[in-house]
Structure formats: structure tokens, C-alpha cells
Amino acid sequence: ATGAPTQDERGSTRDSVPDIGAFEFTTTVPNITLTVSPGSVAEDGTDNLVYTFTRSGSATSSLTVNYTVTGTATFNNDYTQAGSANFSATTGTVTFAPGSSTAIVTIVPTADTIVENDKTIALTLTSSTDYTIGTTEAVTGTITNDDSKVSLEGR
Question: In angstroms, rounded to a whole number, what is the distance separating the alpha carbons of residues 76 and 146?
């Protein structure tokens, strides 16, 4: 068009074809971080390992975040979980509700009387096009053994 600017709002060169304008926007995906508190709990105690997933950025819609599960503890033997949308011995998902900036997965130790080594549960965020990963390393909680051997000496 005659008299039309030769550059658009971004400074890019326009061609000679007239346009009706453009609306441009960029979307930013949320950034996800992960923590655990406390870092360790007794297997026969009342405390649980609480993994907190936090999203920064827009929280207007629900968001599902994926993670892997590793460690020396065995799911449904050494612990159970609450709060995860899906959870297995190797993977899990947690869903942020619309308007919520945090989601919680709770690891509940299973009490026993077996003398054994301490057990670990490590969650690691996995990538998605729906979010970026702010915590790139595994976040590990420990279930400490609180059982002891009984010795019958002098018999």
C-alpha cells in the first residue's frame, strides 16, 4: 500500500502486499520445581515424606506433570503414596488444579519389624512441552530403619 510503513512493530521489513494487521502473542509455559520435606522419616513413625511440586507462571488451568520414581524403597512394600494422579514403581503424574500453584505427593512409610537398611525414594521431573523443569536433579527422601536386633545373651 502506498504510504504504508516499510517495517512492522517488531522492526521486520514488510513486503509490498497489504495486510490487515496482525496480532502476535507468545505463551509462556509454567516452570516446575520440586522439593521434599522432611528429608527423612522413621519407618514406624507418624511423619511422611511430602514432595511439593510448585509451578510459577500462569495457574489458570489444570496442569499434569510427569516424573520418574527411583530409589531403594519398594512401592507397596516399603511405602504407599497419596496425591499422585498415577503412581507406579517407576513413574508418576501429579495434577495441579486450576488456580493452584502447588501440588503434593505424600509418601507414607510402611511400618515393619524387619531390621534393614534405610530406604530412599527419589522423584525426578520429566520433560513436557506443557512446562519447563526448574529442578533438574532427583529429589530424594529417606525412610530410616528404626528396628533393632534383639540379642539373647547369657542363655
Answer: 19
- Residue-wise pLDDT tens digits, 71-99: 999 999 999 999 998 999 999 999 999 99
Residues 6+ apart with CB under 8 A from 125: 32, 34, 65, 66, 67, 133, 135, 136
CB-side exposure of 105: number of CA atoms within 13 Å?
Answer: 35
> CA 50 to CA 82: how far, in whole Å?
10
Does the global pTM surpass 0.90?
A: no
How far apart CA 109 and CA 50 sit, in angstroms, is 11
For residue 99, give every residue at least 6 positions away whose Cβ sits within 8 Å of its Cβ, in sequence order, or none.
Answer: 59, 60
